[in-house]
C-alpha cells in the first residue's frame, strides 16, 4: 500500500515582499492526526507561511500541498480546511450567528452540513451569538473565530495564535478542544508565542527564525536534544567523571544527592547507558528542560 | 454563484450605510417637491439654475422626478454610486473579513463578479428610487397630467418648444430612458472606484478616487482650451439626457455618451480583475 500523503507538506517555500524575504526555502511536513506547533520569534515568517498555506499569498518559490493537493488560491481543498489567520475579524454590523452562516454559505455549502451546534458549543457565546459582532470583546471575537474555523468538521485546522485575547480558563478550554480534535483524527497546525501552550498540546514542533527552518521534529526529540537533566545516582563522583567526558555534555554540576547535567544534542538514554556501563546506579532521571530552553537554545545556536 | 450573491446582498441589506444612501435618494425628491409646492418658482432663474424644469414641474407631477434626477445627477448620485462601487471590496479588507472569505473555496473572479453585481444592483435601486419617489411625491403635489399647452398655461416660462409637449406615457418612457442614461454615464467613474477598491483597505480612498475622477473631469470639461479633446472626459456627455425633455428626443450626444463609458469600464474593470486575482491578501 502506498504511504499516505502528509496532511500538510511545505516544500522549498520562499516568499518575498520586494526586498524583504519573509520565508526562505522552508520545508516541513505535518502528518495526519498530528498537532504541530509553528514557533518562532516575531518576524520569523510564521503568519506568512500560514497565509501561503491557505492561498492568501502566492509563493515566490516552492510550494505547499494540503491533503495531497498542490495549493492554489481558492482551491476546492479549502472546503476541508478550517482556518483562523491572525485576528478574528468579522462583518461588524452582523450578528455572530449571521457571520458564521455567511462564511459557510458563501461557498455554496448547505448550512445543515456546518455542524453548527458543535461550533457554537466551542464559541460558548450563549445569547450573545445573536448580538452584533461590533459589541463583542476581543475574547468573544476570538472564540467566534475558532468556531468559524470548526464549521463543517474540517480535516485540517490552521490556527494562527488561537488563544490571543483569551483568559486563562478560556485558553485551557481551547487547549482541551485541540486535544479532542486531534483525538478525532484532525490535523492541526498552530502558531503561537506561548511556548507552554505549544508544549502542552503539540505532538510536533517546527521552529522558524528569520524565515528559515531552524528545527522540526517531535516534541520529545526537540526537548531531549537540548536543555538539562537531573540524574539521581548512588555514586556522585564516579557519575560526574563518566558524564563529564561524554560527548554532547556541556557541564556537570553536583546537586546532592545527584547531578545536574547541561546537554547539547545528546539523548538522556545514552547517558543512562553510559552510567550503567560504569556500574553507577541510576535512581531517577528528570528532565529539567522545557520547550522554552530548547527554543531559546535553538535560536541562540542559529544566531551563532 | 447564487449563494455568494445572496450572502452579499444580505450584507448590503443589513448595512446601515445602505439605508442612509437610499434615504438620500428618497429625501431629495420629497424635499424638492415640498419646496416647489410651498415656494413656486415664478421665473426660470427661480428654479435653482435649472431653468424651465423647475417651473414645468408645477404643470405635472410626472416632471418632478425629472427635476430630482437633474439635481441628483450633478453630484449626489455620483457620490452614492462611487460609494457602492468603492466600498465593495475595500470594506471587506477594512473589516479584516476579506481573508476569511478567501480561505473558503470561492474563486476570486467569482467573488469580484458578485461584488460588481451587488454594487450595480444597489446603484440601480438608488437611481430607480429617485424616479419612483419623485413620481409619487410629484403626483400627490401636482397631479398626474400630460405636458401640453393646457397644463403649462399660467406658468411663467421663458420658452417651451411645441415638440417638448409629451403624453404621460411619453414622459414615463423618457424618464426611464433618462434614468438609465444618467446611471450609465457614471459607470466610468464607478469603475475607477471599484478598481481602487480591489487595491486598498480604505473604502474612503476608493470612493474618493471615483469622486475625484468626476470632479477632475468636470473641471477639465469646462476649460475651453481643452474643447478639442473634451469628448474623452468621462462626464462630457453627462447632461445629454435633458434633450429627451426639451423636444429633441435622443440625440447623437446620448449615443456618444453611452459609447464613451465602454473604454473606461473595460480598462478599469480588466485591471481590477487582473490585479485582484494575483493579489497577496495581507489585510
Textual characterization of the structure:
The complex is a heterodimer of chains A (304) and B (283). In chain A, strand 7, helix 5 and strand 8 form a beta-alpha-beta unit. Chain A has ten helices and 14 strands. In chain A, helix 7 crosses helix 10. The longest helix of chain A is centred in the middle third of the chain and has 16 residues. The two termini of chain A are 44 Å apart. Chain A has 304 residues and is of the alpha/beta class. Chain B is mostly helical. Chain B is globular. Chain B starts with a helix and ends in a 5-residue tail after the last helix. The relative contact order of chain B is 0.14. Classes of the chains: A alpha/beta (304), B mainly alpha (283). At the A-B interface, helix 2 of A face helix 1 and helix 6 of B.
Brief sketch in words of this structure:
The complex is a heterodimer of chains A (304) and B (283). Chain A is of the alpha/beta class.
Percentage of residues in strands of chain A: 25-35%
User: Largest sheet of chain A, if any?
Assistant: 6 strands, mixed
Report the count of strand segments of chain B.
0
> How are the strands of the biggest sheet of chain A laid out side by side?
6-7-8-3-9-10
For the largest interface, the chains and their residue counts are: A-B, 33 and 28 residues
Task: Return the string of H and E elements of chain B.
Answer: HHHHHHHHHHHH
Uncertain segments of chain A: none
